[in-house]
Design goal:
mainly alpha; 248 residues
């Protein structure tokens, strides 16, 4: 069973690494489908894999000089502080409500990505001051909500950076940096309640490392942003429907 989980997580992590996200919004549903408990396995393992994926992707993006280091430090600091709070709140919320919120986040990301897929890449993006102030506020909220749901916040961070005028590849790369910080902080708030086996953690960690390298390399050197966004949106819609049916 672990091998099948690893294959599925490898596939989705490859796609999400291309978008500067860790894949937590799909890691958690995959683990749930295979019967792993939500709060003690699916969410903590999901956010750990989320951070590993974006960390490996970040190395590739940094080598290609795509990360906006200057504009993202405030965002990273906000993520570092807000994510543990989200992890604490998650332990006080019913599992059913957390799954419903996860489905809403999935549909939001799918719709928002489809709306921007056809737009031309911007030639300029927001001034440094605006990126720091506006980005810090929105990322704090994204990191809090992401950690509460077992995600890294990239679902909101990548679209937010694009709204601010970042070119797709620069938004993806910068999001990878912020999500890495957010995931690490969120996982720190959950590690004491994790009940996953070391075999599961090791196999899945190796799978996402390979996937992250492959996905980030393709995005940095080969991929067309428009087609990546279309494929990503369709994948999210399918997963959202799959999660929603049992609840309804």
């Amino acid at each position: 069973m672990i091998a099948l989980v690893a294959v599925l997580i490898f596939l989705v992590s490859t796609v999400f690494a291309m978008l500067g996200m860790g894949g937590g919004m799909l890691h958690v549903p995959i683990l749930l489908w295979f019967g792993y408990p939500l709060k003690t396995v699916a969410q903590p393992v999901g956010i750990l894999l989320n951070g590993i994926t974006t960390l490996v992707a970040l190395v590739v993006y940094a080598r290609n000089r795509l990360v906006d280091w200057k504009g993202s430090w405030g965002m990273a600091a906000a993520a570092l502080l807000a994510a543990p709070l989200g992890s604490i709140v998650a332990r006080m919320v019913a599992d059913r409500l957390l799954i419903i919120l996860l489905v809403l986040m999935i549909f939001f990301a799918a719709i928002r990505t489809l709306m921007t897929a056809h737009k031309a890449e911007p030639e300029k993006f927001a001034p440094s001051r605006m990126r720091q102030v506006l980005g810090t506020i929105v990322v704090a909220f994204a990191a809090f909500l992401g950690a509460m749901l077992g995600l890294g916040g990239g679902t909101l961070i990548s679209p937010m950076l694009m709204w601010m005028g970042y070119p797709t590849k620069k938004a993806v790369a910068t999001s990878a940096f912020v999500v890495t910080v957010s995931s690490a902080s969120g996982f720190a708030g959950r590690v004491g309640h994790m009940a996953a086996s070391w075999e599961l953690i090791l196999v899945l960690s190796l799978a996402v490392m390979l996937a992250a390298w492959l996905g980030s390399w393709v995005m940095a050197t080969r991929a067309k942003p428009k087609w990546v966004k279309y494929g990503y949106s369709l994948l999210l819609v399918g997963v959202g429907i799959k999660l929603l049916i049992p609840i309804l």
